[in-house]
Amino acid sequence: MDGPEDLTQLDPRYKSMMRLVAGLFAIALLVAATIAEIAIPGWTGVVWAPVTLVAAYLVLYLPMRRYATRGYSIAEERLRVVRGVLFHTDTIVPFGRVQHIDVDQGPLERGFGLATLTVHTAGSHNSSVSLPGLSHSDALAMRDGIRAAIRRDTL
After folding, report:
1. What tens digit of pLDDT does each residue of 77-104 get?
2. Which of the 8 DSSP states describes residue 47?
3. What is the Cβ-side half-sphere exposure of residue 60, based on CA atoms within 13 angstroms?
4. For residue 17, what are the contacts with CB-CB under 8 A and spacing of at least 6?
């Protein structure tokens, strides 16, 4: 079986996007902590201190860790997607099982020039595999490459 060293890393801009998303969540946490600090007179810092530590963890460490544990490979007529910090997932999709392929971009992904490749397979349980954090051009190239491989198999 392939090892982690055989995986292709996601686009580095994905780290920045994950940090931005975590930063927005951290701001919401800090606003809630500020409201709690105002509501609890005489307990200055009792809410703010732990929330600030959690916010720093969410923004500075977690996106880097998530980025480091994600990767993919395309080889031997299959797509392999690896992800997970606490719960590790290693998914292999043979091209022969692919029904259709989507390339999606949300507003943040579009702003960072990124896209998510989603491969839909036959079946009902876990019938789609998403690979976020690809550059838009790479996602389109992967979609076209998988589509070409599927056509070769059906001819």
Report:
1. 999 999 999 999 999 999 988 999 999 9
2. T
3. 6
4. 108, 109, 112, 114, 133
Reported as a pLDDT band with limits 50, 70 and 90, residue 154 is low
Burial class (CB in 10 A: 0-12, 13-18, 19+), 130: middle
Residue-by-residue DSSP string for 59-97: IIIHHHHHHHT-EEEEETTEEEEEE-SSS-EEEEEEGGG
For residues 10 and 18, what is the distance between their CA atoms, to the nearest angstrom?
12
CA distance 66 to 31: 25
How many Cα atoms within 13 Å fall on the side-chain side of residue 91?
19
The residue count for the chain: 155
Q: Check: CB of residue 85 under 8 Å from CB of residue 108.
A: no
d(CA 72, CA 150): 19
| pTM listed for this prediction | 0.84
Helix (H, G, I), strand (E, B) or coil at 37: helix
